[in-house]
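Input/output pair, single chain:
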Amino acid sequence: MNAILLLKVTLRTLRRRLLRSLLACLGIIIGVASLIATVTLFNSGVAHGRKTLSLRGERQIVITAAPRGIRSYATRNREVRPQDRLTVDDYVAVRHGGGPMVASTAMVQAVHTLQANGREVTAVLRGTDVEGLAFDHATPRSIIAGAMFDGADVDAGAGVCVITADLARELFSDDESIGRYVMVNGVPLLVMGVASAKAAWGEPEGRDYEAYLPYSSLLRRIAPGAALRIFVEAPETAVIPELRSHLLGVLEARRGERSAEFQVSDPAEHRLRDTEAAGIARRLLISVMCISLLVGGIGVMNIMLANVAERTREIGIRLAIGTRTHDILFEFLLEATVLCLLGGAIGIALGTAAAAVVAAQFGWAVHLSFGVIALGFASSVLVGLVFGFAPARAAARLHPLEALRYEP
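Output:
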């Protein structure tokens, strides 16, 4: 039988049983739509994160205490021993140790409740040096009102802070936050300035609650046991390996044989970890899609078997008048494949639309991969061929006389 004629017969058959056909490919639709939507959103989020990462972030090196020695019974992960933590003296040695660097800061973080004007807000406290705003987040913040604390405040451990615009609105709705005090764990902090919003993605708008204060003040007055990190900025990416080696030398000179107590990471290591994590996430998403397609394929096979049983007399008549068995096989196999392709096409459309809607909520550009679309279509064809073969073979192996005597 002519292939074009077979395709026309297949489409006519599916159109006559439109509702059954749509229900049959529902699993395919869900599987392909989930693949397209999740992978597209994942790629869009990663692309947005890389786009918002400033050139300054590409030149940053981060020094942290290395987890070793102690295992937590709760998490079974290695933890940082108290004696291994980085200290303010380590930061001072790095800051004044020379080398090809243009800026550096200590960074300490804690979460506390801030009280002011009869209101309470849970916020992230970030203890930094004078240049701390430029190192925090992918896009550096800037002061939009008031001023940043200075080196004298850091040296003295002064009770001063800079709060974000969202936090200022939440605590002081009259927009007069400069010169007023907030209480943190019983410690009064004078608000010296208001910082701009960060280039956040994936967080609720208007919930950027953070406060910046001298790291010395945070460590002495509010969170003595907080872990300290050191951020260093290179003038250009080409000198990062040289700067990394220099920093290792400075810290090893301070700690001697205890150099394993810290680790120095640069953007190249971060990108490698991000790439590995992205690969694992994609494989997990594809695994979920395969399970959905497996369920959908079983549904298609059941519907095709029902179609064969319903059309048994028709098949018997066609075999009796000379239709070849491989034409019957090919017709039902084509019907299953077209059914799955239909489900794949609907799934791709729904998945793309869902990804576009969600990406718009976060302000991301949609990054739709041609490879993912091709995978959706290819997997639909494969499911149609695999799960459609058994019903097609059952139809082709019917005996004409038995098929003509069949009573549904």
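The first helix runs from residue 3 to 16. The CA atoms of residues 42 and 278 lie 8 Å apart.
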